[in-house]
Amino acid sequence: GAGVSQTPSNKVTEKGKYVELRCDPISGHTALYWYRQSLGQGPEFLIYFQGTGAADDSGLPNDRFFAVRPEGSVSTLKIQRTERGDSAVYLCASSFDRLRGYTFGSGTRLTVV
Amino acid sequence: EDQVTQSPEALRLQEGESSSLNCSYTVSGLRGLFWYRQDPGKGPEFLFTLYSAGEEKEKERLKATLTKKESFLHITAPKPEDSATYLCAVAWGNQFYFGTGTSLTVIP
Questions:
Q1: Which residue in A90, A92, A112 sits closest to A104, CA to CA?
Q2: What is the pLDDT of residues A30-45, one digit of tens each?
């Protein structure tokens, strides 16, 4: 596609539920990042994929968070047993080269009630 | 300790009133400094990458410069459509560290 697509754009879930957030990167982009952005803050790194593998998952806050990219394109961020503190905008970005400018999606706004 | 600090947090300018935004960083071994623009409800939009001290990049009314410890985003004769949050990020290792941004409002 022309840009990075993230679905859903908004997700409201109850505390304790499981959610999946999807990212469709720009075709051919091998590098993919997930970030989390809270109101008034800059994006916070979660995980970086180079191809199919997670090259750096040091930003995942705990073991309730997991991400996959099985075929090196679409990525899914999975959050188990959601907590109210997980509420934020989850951003995905992709690039040909991780040191070049990244194209971000519009994000998924997750609200845990 | 914050790796990236942006100032001011918010800036209001009259249309045509030039100014500069600051991004200071403390990481060593910088592998690139990035400027992004973010509109409400949207993801950040890439503006510039700077790799070495002394480098400058320009795009329309925006000019980014880089020294060994900070970067400036100069806005010349801004227009209301330049209103947005401007984020800077530094590449270090596999990660990008973002600042908290400067919210710019340009008043007609």
A1: A92
A2: 999 999 999 989 999 9
